[in-house]
Design goal:
- This protein has 877 residues and is an alpha+beta fold.
- The chain contains 27 helices and 29 strands.
- A ten-stranded mixed beta sheet has the order 4-7-6-5-8-3-2-11-14-13, with no helix packed on it. Strands 1-19-20-18-17-16 form a six-stranded mixed beta sheet. A four-stranded mixed beta sheet has the order 27-24-23-29.
- Strand 9 and strand 10 form a beta hairpin.
- Helix 19 crosses helix 21.
- The site of zinc ion has 6 residues, from helix 4 and helix 5.
């Protein structure tokens, strides 16, 4: 699974799910995590009737099981399923059973009419159940006047579509059929083997799958558009493989990019793993409400804007396509072929796929510079991981309520970087050999973290690497390495990173430390509090060579100046690491704000787009956190303009579609990122006027007036035109089936930063045409801007219950993070008081609230200590 970039940054916003109606309160005798090991499923046969325009679907499920001992009752899973008939065959006779759902997580029990003997039995269910309205279970959405249905099961939502033993440790074949309306397309994990008429409908029958866990099953039906092709044979796979792209009708002309580019990514992965694609075919499926993507075996699903690229799609969208498609397809081996035994090992699944997603995405199209995005994500994860409240990557999962919390920035951003760090330290060949050994040992089965570590140690023939892995995987927190020049070389020491004014328990790590001084580079394991690295080269010290280490660094001020002076020539990874560590030093109280401005200015000359604007984006966050009083805003804006306006003048800027299409993709991205800084943060009048004019023409029907890379900024400038502009854009967005347009327009309206527009939004946020995901986006925008934050927060508090109900259990785990842009010690206490009862009520979001309160308080402490310096800096300009 992979969440959209913005969502991952918030450590939040996972797929929405329908909140179960039954209470989440644990009942006596109800299993809280793993089911008792009383029965093993052997095979599922699932027949669904899916008429997406109806409120409910029907199912017939037969599950062959092996009972370990005679049983009168049996726990299993099923959520909000209305059973019409439950039968059981065992020991050559047939009987009945009573089915009872026991809690809101879908733990259920079967009570048999007699004691079943140990051994083989078949459970047979007839039932119906409601479709979800968001990406959870079997859900339906109306697009362009027609209804479609898809599934999203990870982590524990398969149980809302069919009864079963909904745990990743059970892998069995699934034989699925889907009965739906004539003319509809139906898909499932395996290939369709035939179809037959059935009472005015059509029954599509699919081949039995390879062994799969319940969460990787997928199917759907509707009047889909499809395009079909093949992935060409590779050294690992002798035959071409069938590939289809499937989506709703409004996307029918945007499917070619995905069809052409899926095969090459499959080929790169086969080459890495040394094994063919593990399943017989691959469908790449788009859904308008998927907030990311999901690696269902042979049937991946993606948010529409990830999979469907129009001609002239911007660099950022191509980057996301490459990274996310490679991530999901990497899971086909690492996750689907070899599956975690339980959710405590899901970190390895996601961390590895994250690392592969960036790596293979980069190999697919190097000029997009996808790889540096992994570091960006890791540094954002450090912001979360540096807090006192937190969790290690690898932690026990004891209850159903804990499962979804494992899918956060720590798992993806930190985990991916820890994998990268170990791979870089071992060297590609040894790491790859360990991965292949692991897959070959556990193909079509399950494996644990320890199994993976064992394969790695065997391939590396270096047991010390396990200590390094464990020190990052089993404890939370971010190391910071202090580096100083001495006569013997570099004196290095490690401690746990802490923000100014916070006390945090000490920790230590075994750090694969790679330092570069000029052209001299050295790597060693730092497993003590301090050491000397015998490196005496000339030039600036780069304490995180390549930027691949999951650690921050700290330097004496003179060394910071020397490193900052090298900004324009640092590699993307080193440039991102420098900006992150410098800002971390500021937040720890070690350096003053003038150094931040000096660095942003120097780094604006770095050729990599992500590095050139990183400092500006961080300076922009000072305004959104409320650090810049109104009186200082003009000087602050002038500063941002002075950093970036000359860059834009040198690049040239024309908002028309494709005007800069002949530029290198990263240069195109640099231009649109600089336009964003100038339009939003510097409030540059010329840039905003140009954007507003282009957006008005675009909305008037001239699709060539505004490039796709500028939709966010164009609409942002357009809505500053006042209430009629806001109302016009809102109407178009609410009625649109173009996901890219809709997301950009809703985002611009929510994030206007204007108090009057904010009030208008709150008057219209309950408009029936909006989806729950649109409301979340509007709220995120309101609470992200100082002028609308208080009003947005008040509304958020009033409607917290609705947000939980409409967006479900997964979003409920992260809702408190919407308040994390406040910056005050008092506000932190207020948020604690207001939200703690909600978190307790829903048993969701506790960690998110802990982190939010801490971030808001830490920011307030820092502002008290450093706010005056910061203001003096701008006032003095
Ligand atoms: Zn994933």
């Amino acid at each position: 699974m992979r969440f959209a970039v913005l969502a991952a940054a918030l450590a939040s916003a996972a797929p929405s799910a329908v909140m179960a109606a039954a209470p989440a309160q644990p009942a006596a005798g109800v299993p809280q995590g793993l089911l008792p090991d009383a029965a093993t499923p052997i095979a599922y046969r699932l027949d669904f009737t899916i008429l997406p325009d109806q409120p409910r679907f029907t199912g017939h499920a037969e599950i062959d099981i092996d009972l370990k001992a005679p049983a009168r009752s049996l726990f299993l899973h099923g959520r909000d399923l209305r059973m019409t008939k439950v039968a059981v065959k065992a020991g050559g006779t047939a009987g009945t059973a009573r089915y009872t759902q026991l809690d809101g997580f879908g733990v259920s029990r079967l009570d048999f009419d007699r004691t079943l003997p140990a051994g083989k039995a078949t459970l047979i269910f007839d039932y119906d159940a409601p479709y979800g309205d968001g990406p959870s279970g079997l859900y339906h959405i109306k697009v362009g006047g027609q209804w479609y249905a898809w599934t999203q099961f990870e982590s524990i939502d398969a149980r809302a579509a069919y009864p079963g033993f909904d745990q990743p440790g059970y892998k069995t074949p699934f034989t699925v059929s889907v009965t739906t309306r004539p003319g509809f397309t139906a898909y499932a994990n395996a290939a369709e083997t035939g179809s037959e008429a059935k009472g005015g409908l059509v029954k599509h029958v699919f081949a039995p799958t390879k062994p799969l866990p319940t969460y990787l099953v997928a199917f759907g039906a509707g009047p889909f558009a499809t395009v079909a092709g093949t992935a060409a044979p590779t050294p690992e796979r002798a035959r071409p493989m069938d590939v289809r792209v499937i989506g709703t009708q409004p996307n029918k002309d945007k499917m070619d990019f995905a069809l052409r580019n899926t095969g090459p990514i499959v080929g790169l992965l086969e080459n890495y793993f040394g094994r063919p694609f593990p399943f017989p075919k691959l469908d790449q499926i788009g859904s308008p409400v998927m907030p990311g993507a999901m690696e269902n075996a042979g049937a991946d699903t993606y948010g529409d804007t990830i999979l469907f690229l129009d001609t002239g799609a911007p660099t950022s969208q191509k980057k996301e396509f490459g990274m996310v498609v490679a991530h999901e397809l990497a899971h086909q081996w690492f996750g689907d072929l070899v599956t975690p035994k339980w959710w405590d090992d899901i970190w390895l699944n996601e961390s590895f796929a994250n690392w592969m997603g960036y790596r293979i995405g980069n190999a697919w199209q190097p000029d997009l510079k996808i790889n540096a995005g992994a570091l960006d994500e890791a540094f954002r994860a450090m912001t979360i991981d540096a807090l006192k409240a937190g969790r290690p990557i690898h932690q026990p999962i004891a209850t159903n309520g804990d499962i979804d919390a494992a899918f956060d920035a720590v798992t993806y951003g930190k985990g991916g970087q820890v994998v990268a760090m170990i791979a870089a330290y071992l060297g590609d060949e040894k790491f790859q050999a360990g991965v292949r050994l692991h897959l070959n040992r556990h193909a079509y089965g399950n494996a644990s973290t320890d199994d993976f570590f064992a394969a790695m140690a065997e391939a590396a023939q270096d047991p010390r690497v396990l200590g390094a892995l464990r020190s990052f995987v089993d404890q939370q927190g971010v190391p910071v390495v202090r580096v100083e020049r001495t006569a013997d070389g570099l004196a290095v020491s490690q401690k746990r990173y802490a923000m100014l004014g916070t006390d945090i328990a000490p920790e230590s790590w075994t750090i694969p430390l790679c330092i570069r001084v000029g052209d001299a580079r050295q790597c060693q394991l730092l497993d003590a509090a301090s050491a000397v690295v015998p490196l005496k080269g000339m030039g600036a010290i780069m304490p995180n060579a390549g930027g691949t280490g999951y650690y921050r660094f700290s330097l004496p001020e003179a060394e910071w100046h020397a490193l900052i002076a090298q900004s324009a020539s640092l590699s993307p990874g080193e440039a991102l690491a420098t900006t992150d560590s410098l800002w971390a030093a500021f937040r720890a109280g070690e350096v003053g704000p003038a150094l931040l401005v000096e660095a942003a200015k120097a780094m604006a000359g770095n050729p990599y787009s992500g590095a050139a604007t990183d400092g500006g984006d961080r300076l922009a966050s000072l305004r959104t956190r409320g650090w810049i009083p109104d009186a200082e805003l003009p000087a602050y804006r002038a500063l941002i303009a002075s950093l970036y306006a000359p860059k834009l003048a040198a690049l040239g800027f024309d908002p028309k579609a494709g005007a800069h299409a002949s530029d290198d993709p990263d240069r195109q991205k640099l231009r649109s990122d600089i336009v964003a800084l100038l339009a939003d943060t510097a409030q540059d009048r010329d840039v905003r006027a140009t954007l507003a004019r282009a957006a008005a023409a675009y909305l008037g029907g001239d699709r060539q007036a505004l490039d796709q890379s500028l939709l966010d900024e164009g609409f942002g400038a357009y809505v500053a035109g006042g209430e009629s502009a806001v109302a016009t854009l809102f109407d178009k967005a609410a009625g649109s089936d173009d996901s890219q347009f809709r997301e950009a327009a809703i985002g611009a309206i929510g994030g206007s930063g204007d108090a009057a527009t904010g009030r208008w939004v709150l008057d219209h946020i309950l408009d029936k045409r909006l989806r729950p995901s649109d409301r979340l986006s509007l709220l995120r925008g309101l609470m992200g801007e100082p002028a609308t934050r208080d009003a947005g927060y008040a509304w958020f508090l009033q409607h917290y219950d609705d947000f939980v109900k409409d967006n479900g259990i997964f979003v409920a785990s992260s809702l408190p993070a919407y308040a994390n842009s406040f910056c005050s010690v008092e506000k932190a206490a207020e948020i604690e008081t207001a939200l703690r009862p909600k978190v307790a009520q829903y048993k969701r979001g506790g960690l998110s609230l802990d982190r939010t309160v801490e971030q808001v308080r830490d920011c307030g402490i820092l502002q008290r200590a450093r706010g005056a310096d910061m203001q003096a800096l701008f006032a003095g300009r």
